[in-house]
Amino acid sequence: MCVVDKNRNKKIKFVDTTLRDGEQTAGIVFANDEKIMIAEMLSDLGIDQLEVGIPAMGGDEKESIRRIANKNLKASIMGWNRAVISDVKHSIDCGVDAVAISISVSDIHIEHKLQTSREWVIEKMMETTEYAKKNGLYVSVNGEDASRADDDFLIEFVKRAQEAGADRFRFCDTVGIMDPFTLKEKIEKIYNATKMDIEMHTHDDFGMATANAVAGVLGGANHVGVTVNGLGERAGNAALEEVIMTLTHVLKYESDIDPRKFKGISEYVSRAAGRELPAWKSIVGDNMFTHESGIHADGALKDPKNYEAFDPSEVGIERKIVIGKHSGKAAIVNRLSDYGIEVSNDEASLILEEVRAKSIRLKRALFDKEIVSIYDDIKSVGSELESKIVI
Questions:
Q1: Residue 7 confidence (pLDDT)
Q2: Most buried of 232, 259, 339, 373 (most Cβ within 10 A)?
């Protein structure tokens, strides 16, 4: 399963790391059974490869990875490793078919974290990659902090990874500092110099993870690393649902991934992570298709395309018109008509006035029963006035 740029016949594959980087979100721990369920849901969705954890951690982590690998899912199963042969041995023991071999490539990390040299980094990467390939594994070589690495060294690193047999290079914007324009140029430079398969792995520290992931694709990357709901270290990663919908709706790529499953996966991961799925979350948040403002609600009622980028059914969500402080008469008339109540323009104005006042008092939108009750009260007062006039 993949997304295809039909203009260039370019296939984009997805690598979901919810169960590795997503679980590295501070305070999140998935139960083993939850990890199995998430892996199954992502595989059924059509995700190409799942990075399911760190085998070298041992214990429950290793056991859950082994269980996922034994499920014979449609997706490739990847274990994350340092550039250390013993880590790869743990991955092999789990039965995964792919490994990520990660090592820092920026001078900042090499000097202050690893306290070593560029030559040592390349040596460790190559010997670990060669070992993994000898054992029949698909290998992604990860350049940690690639966005802050020297371009020439990064290209040398990728070329040496190719020599060692690596299948792709993961470009990691580890601290999320890239902008889409610069990143596109960087990826173009690396791809043109190496013709290597490139995966984007972007973080959201400046709110640009999704934009940067897409920019990388435009620059030549053919794999995208994502997580459900954008979970991940610090501010998170590029969100699976955002990247796929951007590629298919904004860039018009073709896809055989079923977005109707996004909502279910997002809600399950949200509950498993103990992180509420915000109503304002792009693509899968309830507010994506909830309208209150009078102008917007009126426009959506006349034709949803006025204020919706795509139909809510595409991602398993229903449209809602909320009645509250910002509502207009059209929404009032529409909502009451659902209950078989027809109101005049003057009645709708009176009801709207009271709806706005009550919404301010309660500091929320109103329930349908409250709106009907306001209608009943206004009709009752009107009837009393009419009877007094007759008398």
A1: 67
A2: 232
Buried/exposed 24-43: b ≥16 CB within 10 Å, e otherwise: bbeeeebeeebbbbbbbbbb
Task: Identify the weakest region by mean pLDDT among 24-28, 95-99, 223-227, 318-322.
Answer: 318-322
Q: Quick one: 254 and 308 in the same domain?
A: no
- In whole angstroms, what is the distance from residue 88 CA to residue 157 CA? 20
Residue 311 is classified by DSSP as -
Co-location of 298 and 264 in the same domain? no
pLDDT tens column, 114-151: 999 999 999 999 999 999 999 999 999 999 999 999 99
Comparing 14-18, 68-72, 212-216, 295-299, which segment has the lowest mean pLDDT? 295-299
Q: Which of 120, 132, 212 is nearest to 165 (CA)?
A: 132
Instruction: Indicate if 177 and 294 belong to the same structural domain.
Output: no
Domain closes at, from 273, 304, 322: 273
Those residues whose C-beta lies under 8 Å from the C-beta of residue 227, and which sit 6 or more positions away, are 16, 17, 18, 21, 22, 236, 237, 238, 239, 240
Q: Is the pLDDT of residue 162 over 90?
A: yes
Instruction: Report strand pairing: 10-16 vs 3-5.
Output: antiparallel
Question: 289 and 320 in contact (C-beta within 8 Å)?
Answer: yes
Residue 228 in domain: yes
Does residue 172 share a domain with residue 104?
yes
Within 8 A by CB and 6+ apart from 29, the residues are 23
Listed residues 273, 305, 324: the one ending a domain: 273
d(C-alpha 116, C-alpha 107), whole Å:
10
Instruction: Say if CB 220 and CB 186 are below 8 A apart.
Output: no
Side chain identity, residue 224: V
Q: pLDDT by residue (tens digit) across 306-351? A: 988 999 999 989 888 888 999 999 989 999 999 999 999 989 999 9
CATH assignment at residue 171: 3.20.20.70
Q: Is the pLDDT of residue 390 over 50?
A: no
Is the same domain home to 136 and 181?
A: yes
Domain that holds residue 63: 3-273
Same domain, 141 and 217: yes
* Residue at 281 is within a domain: no
Task: Determine the Cα–Cα distance for residues 138 and 380; give it in Å rounded to an integer.
Answer: 74
Query: pTM score, two decimals?
Result: 0.89
Query: Does residue 83 fall inside a structural domain?
Result: yes
